[in-house]
Amino acid sequence: MAAGSEITELFRSSVCSCVELEELGADEYLVHTGFSYSDGDELHIVLNTSGKKWVLTDEGHTMMWLSYEDHNMTASRNDLLSRIVSSNSVQMDDGRIKAEFDPETAGRALCSVIQAMLRVSDLRFLDAER
């Protein structure tokens, strides 16, 4: 059996190997992660860099995706949305999930954005207000 550090490196190399950047413009990239919404559409994540400030955002695609499902944001769902945002260290900015970060914390920020997007998209599975 492999040592702990070897397993850690295997996880890091295999998880990171699926992440690819596609240049969209100056200092702007589409981040391909291999993660998708439940309908199979790839998560839409954009990285913007400007000096020391880096931002990952879904550009509002997650909330737009929910709207396709004729999803109603009730008080309970809004409360859950607030909890998802705060527990994943992201912000909601005019319907956009986003995270601002330093280059040293890029991996953690990407994981937070992915987790938040997936959890927000799961709000569609709530049929009744609870």
Structure description:
The protein is of the alpha+beta class and 130 residues long. The chain has one domain: 2-Layer Sandwich (Yope Regulator, Chain: A). The protein has four helices and six strands; from the N terminus they run αββββααββα. It has a six-stranded antiparallel β-sheet with strand order 1-2-3-4-6-5, covered by helices on one side. It starts with a helix and ends in a 9-residue tail after the last helix.
Fold blueprint:
Blueprint (H helix, E strand, L loop, with lengths): L3 H13 L3 E6 L2 E5 L12 E6 L2 E5 L3 H8 L6 H13 L3 E3 L2 E6 L4 H16 L9
Antiparallel strand pairs: 1-2, 2-3, 3-4, 4-6, 5-6
Helix pairs in contact: 2-4
* Integer average pLDDT: 85
Bin the helical content: 25-40%
Helix/strand class: alpha+beta
- Classify the beta-strand content into a percent band: 15-25%
Uncertain stretches of 5 or more adjacent residues: none
Number of helical runs? 4
State the strand order across the main sheet: 1-2-3-4-6-5
CATH topology: Yope Regulator, Chain: A
Termini gap: 47 Å
Overall tally of domains = 1
Major pleated sheet = 6 strands, antiparallel
Overall, the morphology is globular
Number of strands: 6
Q: How would you spell out the order of helices and strands?
A: HEEEEHHEEH
Q: Please give the CATH class.
A: Alpha Beta
- CATH structural architecture: 2-Layer Sandwich
* Overall radius of gyration: 16 Å
